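Regression test case RT-17, inverse folding.

Input:
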């Protein structure tokens, strides 16, 4: 039996308010041979029931749609890992359960991949916010995947799983899977390794992934010190990965960039954590003046500028005052 053209991996956890819209956008895809894996991370709500009821309206999708229940709640990294292991498609892409996609997106991505002989195809995003829809176009990318990582420190491409179609053989032949237990920045841990082994890179425009920024329960909406420690662990793993390669020197600045971007999250409302910042990845300070500002959120850029000009202590003080005033 011929492999499906694409496997789309959908993490499912507490997305009952959004999963029907997500599922409909997948079931109505113009691509015929589409494997859809809903990975249920022991969701406590009725998300799975909604998926099952929605699927009944699209019997043509029955044969290639599976709902896989995790043995216990393992978090996003474990879910993505299981999805990649279970996938049988020629290519793999991810779609979060609170987001949705244009109906021709996966056909466009697949056709482009086959026509161009690409290992990775990147699409643009539309951020769906309370104040409307905002297009986020990906800038012009190099033709080779490895060049993205070599120059990432000065030309940061968001390492999101959801807008990158990846040839499945990149995962299987190089044993690339998310690091279990590291759920914050799990995509930053995964995609740089995929790009390292990839060859031909292309991109499409005019068909989009819709990133829902209105879900206040999304993991990326807020985090604390445990999540920051996970980011630092991801940076440590990436450091080990690239340092083990024969061309490690080509990625030295990008490794330092990931180290710095992880540790800067220690600079919040605690002078103790500011000391941790000063003692973590000390060599990464050398990359500060070469970093691409696009690697930071709008809020993150202010913190970065404060740290860049040795005003981290002032940022901590301001953060403390803000918390005190808004108690």
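Golden output:
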């Amino acid at each position: 039996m011929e492999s499906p053209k694409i496997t789309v991996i959908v993490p499912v956890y507490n997305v009952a308010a959004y999963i029907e819209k997500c599922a409909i956008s997948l079931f109505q895809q113009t691509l015929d041979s589409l494997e859809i894996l809903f990975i249920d991370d022991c969701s406590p709500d009725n998300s799975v029931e909604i998926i099952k009821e929605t699927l009944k309206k699209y019997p043509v999708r029955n044969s290639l749609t599976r709902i896989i229940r995790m043995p216990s709640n393992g978090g996003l990294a474990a879910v993505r890992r299981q999805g990649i292991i279970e996938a049988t498609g020629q290519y793999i892409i991810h779609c979060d359960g609170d987001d949705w996609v244009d109906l021709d997106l996966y056909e466009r991505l697949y056709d482009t991949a086959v026509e161009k002989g690409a290992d990775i195809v990147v699409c643009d995003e539309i951020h769906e916010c309370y104040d409307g829809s905002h297009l986020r176009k990906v800038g012009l990318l190099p033709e080779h995947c490895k060049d993205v990582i070599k120059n990432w420190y000065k030309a940061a491409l968001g390492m999101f799983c959801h807008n990158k179609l990846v040839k499945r053989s990149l995962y299987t032949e190089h044993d690339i899977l998310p690091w279990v237990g590291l759920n914050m920045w799990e995509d930053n841990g995964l995609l740089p390794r995929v790009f390292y082994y990839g060859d031909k890179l292309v991109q499409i425009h005019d068909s989009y992934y819709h990133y829902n920024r209105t879900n206040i329960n999304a993991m990326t909406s807020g985090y604390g010190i445990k999540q920051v420690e996970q980011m630092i662990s991801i940076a440590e793993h990436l450091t080990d990965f690239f340092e083990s390669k024969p061309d490690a020197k080509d990625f030295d600045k990008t490794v330092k960039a990931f180290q710095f971007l992880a540790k800067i999250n220690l600079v919040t409302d605690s002078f103790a954590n500011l000391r941790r910042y000063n003692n973590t990845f000390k060599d990464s300070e050398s990359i500060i003046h070469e970093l691409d500002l696009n690697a930071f959120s709008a809020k993150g850029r202010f913190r970065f500028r404060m740290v860049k000009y040795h005003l981290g202590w002032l940022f901590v003080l301001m953060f403390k005052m803000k918390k005190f005033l808004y108690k």
